[in-house]
Specification:
- The chain has helices at residues 17-21, 45-52, 56-64, 83-109, and strands spanning 42-43, 71-72, 79-82.
- The protein is built from four helices and three strands; from the N terminus they run αβααββα.
- It is mainly α.
- It has a domain at 42-109: Multidrug-efflux Transporter Regulator, Chain: A, Domain 2, CATH 1.10.1660.
- Strand 2 (71-72) and strand 3 form a beta hairpin.
- Helix 2 (45-52) crosses helix 3.
């Protein structure tokens, strides 16, 4: 993917928020291409799959099911995901996971007969 300077790198990384943060472009910025150390604004499904440690086909499923916000390019219909949309998706998954844990804890508090 990209190294800390924003240059293309073949080094693989574990999918985490810290890695995603280095890809973020400041709000209001309109950089569509990677120039002079700036992070790319749009990620391919393969890039997203690498961050999330899932398959690219799983990312496409998230996009088709509208769980992950993305755009479909004209022509071949390739998908792109903004770095901010990916971070929102990750936050939502954390919130859903914490909600599931809280629901499980509440159901454990209910006396069983």
């Amino acid at each position: 993917m990209f190294d800390m300077g924003g240059r293309l790198s073949t080094k693989r990384f574990a999918g985490d928020i810290a890695t995603l943060r280095r890809w973020q472009v400041p709000s209001g910025s309109c950089h569509h291409v990677h120039v002079d150390g700036l992070s790319p604004r749009f990620l391919t499904p393969a890039d997203v799959a690498e961050v999330l440690a899932v398959s690219p086909s799983q990312v496409l499923k998230y996009l088709r099911d509208r769980e992950l916000r993305g755009i479909k390019l004209p022509g071949k219909g390739e998908w792109r995901v903004e770095a901010n949309a990916l971070e929102d998706f990750i936050r939502a998954r954390y919130a859903a996971t914490q909600g599931d844990s809280a629901d499980a804890e509440r159901s454990d508090d209910i006396p069983r007969r």
